[in-house]
Amino acid sequence: MGFADVAALFPPGTAPAAGSAHERYVAQRLAEVGRWGTDTLVDRVRRHAAVIPDRPAFIAAPAPGKTSGNASGEVSGEDGDRISWRQYDELSDRLAVLLLRSAVPGGGGLARGERVGVLLPDGVAVHVAYLAALKAGVVVVGIGPRAGRQELRHLLTVGGATALISHAEHRGTPVGELVDGLPLQSRLVLPHRLTDADWPEPTRDDRRLLESRALGLGEIHLLNGTSGTTGMPKCVAHNQNRWMYYHELAVEAGALTPDDVFLTLIPAPYGFAQWTANFTPTLLGSPTVVMPRFSAAGALELIERERVTVVCCVSTQFIMMLNSDPGRYDLSSLRCMFTGGEAVPYERAAEFERRTGAQVLQFFGSNETGALSRTRTTDTVERRLRTAGRVIDEMHVRLLAEDGADVTATGGPGQAACAGPATCLGYFDDPEANERLFTPDGWMLTGDICTVDEDGYLHVVDRKSDFIIRGGKNVSAAAVEEQVGTHPAVAMVAAVAVPDPTYGERVCAVVVLRPGAAVDLDGLRAHLAGRGVSPENWPERLEIVDELPRGSGGKVAKAELRTRLRTR
């Protein structure tokens, strides 16, 4: 695959401009297809269905207020219990056939390469839908389970979706009302219990058609939204090949085996969840535990009940688990936790290791870039918790100064950029965004300011967009959060800028307190002074809240916080 194949991946009018940095980049990624194996995800599921048919593929947490336990071993979807590899394969076949047939309510079948929106909680059904789309040769437009009306409509529109798979309601609102007026040709409404789905058995002709339509390793299989904190999300284009490479990195980093049991707490559409739920466990043949709705206590209960060995979550989630008294649960099966996508708070990560006995690991990257660096089980505690890991050679990481000069040789600081096989295929149908994403010579920009030490370990200084500029001085929001989070009264913290007529911006710490605890601004600043924190990293305003708003990807929604503060 090469330049000639680039345009074929994109619908008419959406392909990268000829000769653009984006087109050259996609051609490089296509040239790597098959390097990490020729099996697709569909191939691997069919193999497991034949070899280990009764082993669990997905295990769903019970919905709130319900209990699990199904003596017959039947699938029970979002209401708990488990789905075997054989059931996963069979159910996705049946749903794939519905996508091909005129039996889809309200319209005809989908042509190969069309896009279908998937709006489902993070239970069993969403994974069945993703696999069905791969088999039917259609591209998923993944929509997070916390998406609001504007985000939902935006992603369906930008992704050019012509069909939608969902439940009848989304967050208490009929889905029909949410998508009213959009040019959707068909909607497929899934029951909450997969055993209630009346999907016909595929015929021999259906199966032959599925075999000919399944998406290949290099083709776009997923468009998902960025989980940034500002503005409407962009649609990021993914192919399976990037996750095959990512899988190799993950297996080596975490010493993963088919005997592992994964608990993935990130919603299915996001890049982090792609390798931790859709790909790596499937490629290994390992069970994946999922939660339709995250709760810290519920996650701890699942680790104990299912003997989870690998948990995958963002920092906010593992901190919430720490705040839920993990000592009340038997977590002896847990051996590692993967986190990433943001700076890892050292003291809370160290506390997680002390209290659970599990090693904290991370990949540094984003939905777009994948992994630039990683920590591994063989790294020391200091390397694992105080760095973003060793730079991955095949990702060709560079550090770029503000003027674009390459400062990699001196270790930075500079904006990290990369060009390697873990990256996405760029933004879908957004040439202006792609122009900002790539340097003219074809490196993908991260938006993160980093340094690399003499041993090749990457250190994240901050996101370019997450500086608080006080009197012309850049204050790292991550640095403020790291230090404020060490106060014994603080359960969660987000540092944001508030306007100031003299300094332009001042530092505000928005804090969730531990139960029964109290703190004021003077006491917090005294605590930071006692730790030797530079005064420039002290908050100048303190806001106590019951909870921090979070975006679809689980990260703190700082744009919403800033808006709240300004309206006061």
TrEMBL record:
SUPFAM superfamilies linked: Acetyl-CoA synthetase-like
Biological processes annotated in GO: fatty acid metabolic process
GO molecular function (one): medium-chain fatty acid-CoA ligase activity
Residue span, AMP-dependent synthetase/ligase domain: 46-428
Keywords for this protein: Ligase
Cross-referenced Pfam families: AMP-binding, AMP-binding_C
Record domain AMP-binding enzyme C-terminal: where: 480-555
Family named by the database record: Belongs to the ATP-dependent AMP-binding enzyme family.
Protein name: AMP-dependent synthetase
Species in which this protein is naturally found: Sphaerimonospora thailandensis
Taxon lineage: Bacteria, Bacillati, Actinomycetota, Actinomycetes, Streptosporangiales
